[in-house]
Amino acid sequence: MIREATADDVEGAADTLAAAFEDYPFTRHTISADDHMVRLRRFQRIFLAEIGLPYGRVWVSDDLRAVSVWTVPGADSEEGAARTMEALLPRLVELAGDRAPAYASAEAAMEPHRPEGPVWFLGTVGVDPGSRGRGLGRAVIGAGLREADAAGVPAFLETSTEDNVGLYRSLGFRVTAEYELPGGGPRTWSMLRPVGG
């Protein structure tokens, strides 16, 4: 069963996201290899607890083996998330470690490909590696897509794994940009899903 997350889910959801992103090209490029998994888990925990839950929407499977974290439009959400991200920047730079310049240049390269209008932004989604292939990722993403459709707002995401592009296309997303991140970073796809897919 898929449900909205609560503060009690943060630790387990952070564990799932860290395991899901262990070998993800973007996070390998932007987060130091030194204590990588510890840094990655902290990064995911910050996004869950300090952005997703207070300013967006988070869905989890009952067993916390699948998680999706969305940022959502709306003046309070956008302003609060923007202020919080600015306040979090020193912590995120510290977590990136020696990859902080790569993190900054990746964000700068992605920014021009992000929509200017309101969107539901799928900031992170992950399934525990031992639970893949059961439709959990599709289910936690689908919960957000139904809400975005009900709100009459398109959905947006970025991925740095070509295998993910097919999954997202099957959910109604289309590629709006494909580019290499600077400094030897991975190929990245920006994808937008119109209301109703």
Please give the structural blueprint.
Layout: E1 2-4, H1 10-20, H2 25-30, H3 36-55, E2 56-61, E3 66-71, H4 75-96, H5 100-110, E4 120-127, H6 136-151, E5 155-159, H7 162-170, E6 174-180, E7 187-193
Helix pairs in contact: 1-3, 3-4
Give the termini separation: 23 Å
Q: In one word, what is the shape?
A: globular
Estimate the helix proportion, in percent: 40-55%
CATH class: Alpha Beta
Structure description:
The chain has 197 residues and is α+β, with helices and mostly antiparallel strands. It has a single domain (2-193), classed as Aminopeptidase. It is built from 7 helices and 7 strands; from the N terminus they run βαααββααβαβαββ. The protein has helices spanning 10-20, 25-30, 36-55, 75-96, 100-110, 136-151, 162-170; strands spanning 2-4, 56-61, 66-71, 120-127, 155-159, 174-180, 187-193. The chain has a 7-stranded mixed β-sheet with strand order 1-2-3-4-5-7-6, with helices on both faces. Strand 6 (174-180) and strand 7 (187-193) form a beta hairpin. Helix 1 (10-20) packs across helix 3 (36-55). The longest helix has 22 residues, at 75-96. The protein starts with a strand and ends with a strand.
